[in-house]
Structures are given as structure tokens and as C-alpha cells.
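In the previous chapter we treated chains in isolation. Here, by contrast, the input contains two separate entities that must be folded as one system, with a combined length of 533 residues.
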Amino acid sequence: MSPRITQKIAFSLLFLVSLVVFIPVLFIIGILVSKGAAALTWEFIFSMPKDGMRGGGILPAIVGTLLIVLCSISIALPVGILAAVYLNEYAKDNLLTRIIQLSIVNLAGVPSIIYGLFGLAFFVIMLNLGVSVIAGALTLAIMELPSIITTTRNSLNNVPASFREVSLSLGVSRWQTIRRVVLPNALPGIMTGAILSIARIAGETAPILFTAAAFYVPHLPHSLSEQVMALPYHLYVISTQIPNMPEKITYGTALILVLLVLILSFTVIILRIFFRKRYKW
Amino acid sequence: MAILTVTNLDLFYGAFHALKAITMMIEEKKITAIIGPSGCGKSTLLRMFNRMNDTIENIRITGEVCLDGKNIYNMKTEREIDRLRRKVGMVFQRPNPFPLSIFENVAFGLRIHKKAKGQVLKEIVEASLKAVLLWDDLKHKLKTSSLRLTLEQQQRLCIARVLAVKPDVILLDEPCSSLDPIATRRIEELMIELKKQYTILLVTHNMQQAARISDDTGFMLLGKLIEFGQTSCIFTNPREKETVDYITGRYG
């Protein structure tokens, strides 16, 4: 076979494989929209559930998930970024640093249900936070820390070493160099990490199962120490626990969950564009 | 008058002996060139004068480097070292402006050191850009990104950024190595202009450059300063055999 033909075959094969990645996305969105779009009404989004969740809306679950996600990301992001800055810019390569790095890698490999059980034991029972938004948010925050730290470190590493060097050579202190040069230039990358985290947190079920999610709460939460309904858990409940569930409500709920993640991600993307402009990459 | 004196300076990276018993005196408001083949330690030596080698781990230094009679290696606090670096500025091999506007690049150090703002800041930026002969070309586009400039303009901007913090000494680490011959020539003219006000230390790969613009020259080989003296002597009447071999082209 001529090299030309082999190349053609190889490229076609690579193209087909890439297509395989694309197809499930297309199907998921397609099925959700075709079966769930009919359920999307203002009432569905903005009202309380009725008839044993077989009717009405899913507002409490939307609000619950939003609360959990926003609390969790506002805990995990600062802690993760600061830890990453320390590990990347300050920490010396010694035993303690290695232990910390090892725990980050291990933390990333822990199954999500284990986080749920840990959250139950530690936040809910030991710290006496009860099943609540805050306990769930803390559990998810710990689960997200490894990925936030890793993506932040990658974006810090992507800031050219010459920027740091110039800044130091101008008599700028190490901390000011990090604050004025390194972090601003790493920010777009850090925010990309945040987007991925938000998408993951919003859909997690196991970690909030015992720490935050309620089976049925037909009103909006008054504080962060209450338990709430949450979209992923609600989806699990209505698809497995409740007989005679109208199909369009199940698919509608799933569609809302996907849309919510999309909206949150877009918000961060817009912020990222704003910061990019400011620092004129 | 000597502004910088180096006495018996040794530097080790781990077990590697990178600078060996260097002793030299750098005259105020002159251009001192350091030449030598790749890896001879000339950049390492240059980085001794603003303590940029401090960022490397596992390094050991003995001997003295004095600025205005004060040993800069006796400085203990980071604050003192930051002050030193404002007095001894550095220009790097590749032009490395920040991804900011032209104005913000020059204003960078002053803003962080809180030395100037408003009108005063504008005046210093203008003076610095004038000193590197960029002002007339760029005065109407100070807000455009510095990355749109040509390499030569970027390197001039980097020099202006150093001038803005008002140093006494400027270290230049092969500042023309990524520029074409015409741009190189113009940067050389700029250096001659700058020596009226600043002491300049130039590391260069380019012997002709050293011969053209420097007052004193040091030749380094394998971490040793083989010969140091007036440029005219080094190039016309060198004492050491290694120097002769190098300037007649027998090393790379």
C-alpha cells in the first residue's frame, strides 16, 4: 500500500474515533430535549411540586442545587487557589510538601460515595451541622479541591517564567509578583478549572445524599443550615422511587439540570472574557 | 571611580563550580562588556550583581560583591534585596514585555513601588520612553498592547521599563541576540547614549559588539575571568593565550 493511502486510512480512522466522542453528547441532548422540552413551562421552573411530585414545579430543587453549588465553589475556589499558589510558588521540595501532594492525588481518586459518608460522619455528626446546605457544600468543596488545585497549578505553571523574572528584577517582592503578575495572567486558566468544577458539583448525587439532600421539602430554604431538595437527587427519586411518574417531568428535570450547568458555565466564561480583556493577553 | 567591586567570588551549583575566584572592578558610567563562549558563566556572573541567582536552589556563594562599598551579599531581608534590584536593573536576552499596554509596561515598577501616580507617573513614563527613543513613534498609542511592537521596539520598551525605576546600574544579558543587525546597531547606539547617566554591564556573545561599544572588557572561560582590562588592550594586545585564541576565533 502506498504511504498516501495508509495516511488516508489513518486520518479517517482518527476522524471516526473523534466522532464516537461526539455522538453520545448529541444523543443525550437530543433525547433530553425531545422528551423533556414539553415540560419546560414557567410553572415548572417557578413553582412548588404537587401531587407527590408528579406535578407542579421543581423550584425548591433548582434553588437547592444553586445554593449548594455556589456555597461549595465559594469555599473550594479560594482555598484551592491559595493552596496551589503556596505549593507552586513558595513550598520547598521537602517531606511535608510531598505528603501534601500525595494527599491531593489520593483525594482525587476517592469514590464520591466515600465523600458522602465522610461528610455525614464529619460535618453532619461530628461538627453537628446536621443535614444541611452547608454540610453538603463543604463535602463537595473537599471533593473539588484536588481538581481546583491541579488546574490552578497548571495555569500558574503556564505563566512564562520570564514574567516572574522581570518582575523580581524590577525590585518587586515575591508576593507582589504573584499578586500583580502571576495570578492575573493565570486567572483565565483558573476560571476554566472553576467551570469544570461547577459542572461536576452540580451533577453530583452521592456526596449530598447523606449531607444535604432532602426527599421532599415543598418550600424554599430559609437558611444554609436547612436541608434542601437538589436536582440530581430529585431526579434519582422521581425516576426510581415514585410510581406513575409522568415521563416528561423526569426528562424535564434532567434538562433543567443540564441547562443550569450551562448557565453557570456561561457566567464564568463571560467573567473570563472580561478578565482576559483587562489583562490584554 | 569603581561603583561595583567583586572580590574573590566563587559560586557552586551543588557540586558544580560555576564561578571561580572572580575579582574585578566596574567603573561608574562606563560600559563594561563580559565576553566568552557559551556556558562560561558570564550570565551567571551578571546575575550576581542583582542577586537574581538567589532564586536557584542549592547554590553556594563565597566572596564579596560590593555596590558603593556595601557588600550586597550581607543583605539579609528580602526588602533589602528588592531595594538593591531597583538600583541594579536588568534587561534580558529575549524581549519580555508584560502582556499589558505600552504605558502600563513602563509604569509597572512605579505603580507597585507606589513611587508615583497621576501626572508624575505620566511624566516619568514619557521621560523613560524618550530616553529609549520610542516616545515620538508611540506617544499616540500608549494604550495599545506591547505585544504588537516589533522585537526591537519591545527590547527598547524593556529598557524603558528598567529606566523608570531609576537604577544606577543596568545589566544587559545579550540584549541583541534576538534582533537583526540593523536593530542591533541601533540598540548599541542607545547603550552608548545611556552610559552618560548609567553604569552599564553587558554580557555578549558578539565580540564585535564588545569591541565597538565597551570601555572595559572581561573575558571568561570555564568559570574563570581570564583577563580583564580596557577594551582597546584586550582586543589589540591581550596578555593571555586563551584570550588570543578566543578573539581570533579558535573557540566557538
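Chain A has one domain: 59-278. Chain A touches chain B through 22 residues (CB under 8 Å). Compare these points with the single-chain example from earlier in the chapter.
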